[in-house]
Amino acid sequence: KILILDFGSQVTQLIARRVRETHVYCEVHPCDVSSDWVRQFAADGKLKGVILSGSHASVYEVDDRAPDAVFELGVPVLGICYGMQTMAAQLGGKVEGSHSREFGYAEVRAHGHTALLKGIEDFSTPEGHGMLKVWMSHGDKVTELPPGFKLMCSTGNCPIAGMADEMRRFYAVQFHPEVTHTVQGAALLNRFVREICGAQADWIMRDHIEEAVQKIREQVGGEEVILGLSGGVDSSVAAALIHRAIGDQLTCVFVDHGLLRLNEGDMVMDMFAGKLHAKVVRVDASDLFLGELAGVSEPEQKRKIIGRLFVDVFKAEAEKLKASGQGHKGATFLAQGTIYPDVIESGGAKSKKAVTIKSHHNVGGLPEQLGLKLLEPLRDLFKDEVRELGVALGLPREMVYRHPFPGPGLGVRILGEVKKEYADLLRRADAIFIEELRNFTDEATGKTWYDLTSQAFTVFLPVKSVGVMGDGRTYDYVVALRAVQTSDFMTADWAELPYALLKKVSSRIINEVRGINRVTYDVSSKPPATIEWE
Ligand code: XMP
What we know:
The protein is of the alpha/beta class. The chain folds into 3 domains: 2-196, Rossmann fold, CATH 3.40.50; 205-400, HUPs (Rossmann fold); 419-521, 2-Layer Sandwich (GMP Synthetase, Chain A, domain 3), CATH 3.30.300.10. The protein has 16 helices and 21 strands. A 10-stranded mixed β-sheet has the order 2-1-3-4-12-11-10-6-8-7, with helices on both faces. Strands 15-14-13-16-17 form a 5-stranded parallel β-sheet, sandwiched between helices. A hairpin with a 5-residue loop joins strand 7 (123-124) and strand 8 (130-138). 38% of the residues are buried. The structure holds xanthosine-5'-monophosphate.
């Protein structure tokens, strides 16, 4: 196993993710664990190496140090950014603050042949120096090597950008190998973990399930858990995992707000209640939601109503379950499918954003209001890891690899006032679009267009246009198809879907969904448009 000590960098979990990708088991712990704790952690003889993360702070602002035991265990240690600085400071080198912050892309020159960097380079200079393209973010830097260390790499701005004591197998880099902008970052971490530490690549998703199950059981004990199931990937995987751990101590509440996709509610029930035999309460609240939305057309107002009602319904259900006391004392935990990017977003850059473009479905305040403790078993995982976990738990691939669906559902895909009639038309049109995206395969890649797009859906436009069908005139509604490609959903390009696919979808929708006589394709990128229309 590998121990990652977290000094508070935003990207510490990325280190863990890169280590997991090498199939080596790792654990992230706060940097202020004691030396005794570290020795205890290593007592089973399985600890193969330690990684010290970066920090958001400077060595002058904080006095976080690695527990001394880290350097006394005889295992390899890798310091990253702040981790390098604290390693230098603790082992007798010198660190200085600097006025010029280095932030972003940099080219690093490797010196000599250290076991860590040998043969790893992006290009070489005419003089034959190996060069690495990396991502840097630091103000302070090491200005004097600790005894026993030699220079491993440097940049113009940062003469000591990496150092190594190959006797003791201590390595450190000032740049961030864990981010993808550092082109050879994964190779470097792989080299450290597999070759220098000699850790075995025997960790697989199944092991993760075992560990996660164990952790949930320890945290929950004999108490009960309630979870809001939405049918989305994250809450579904969380539900399946928690159910695996504690069975009937988990109750899922599935709030059907009447704004779900075609047959979605039945599919969720079939999967969780039917196949997994989990306790699921389905609350049909569509009348309530549609009632409160009647006459409201302003997008933000619609979002707020849906968000508030969701919380109200969920709360009422939780109280009801408690009161019913069916042999239990009521839930003391609220489980959520929070994943790691959500954690970064809520604590990090997002809070600084000056304007709210869209108020997202937010159930953040729920645990306090309900007086419940939080259970978030997916907190450390990235989306693709959550998907892999879902498949390993036996959820159908189709469900786990679905495009994201917004919390307010079709409520933000019906422009203006939401009506049941509109929602019914939209559901049928959207199902046809998705079905054809799954039917059409791109020859070059062998993938379906569903898999080639990040998100695709149909939008209902409450305007009527004239058409002709058979011998008659029609005067019916319009829908827009939207399909985008994106890696982070912050920016997105509209997808260049094949004309044959668009043609098929258009003709099927107009022929099969009475009430829609025109189909358009949205060719706007984000920015300046957004992915959803509201
Ligand atoms: P926009 O429309 O802002 O969407 O470009 C970016 C991504 O966020 C999704 N989205 C939401 N997801 N609750 C969610 O859980 C919401 O209220 C919400 N609004 C938008 C959208 O589907 C896209 O993937």
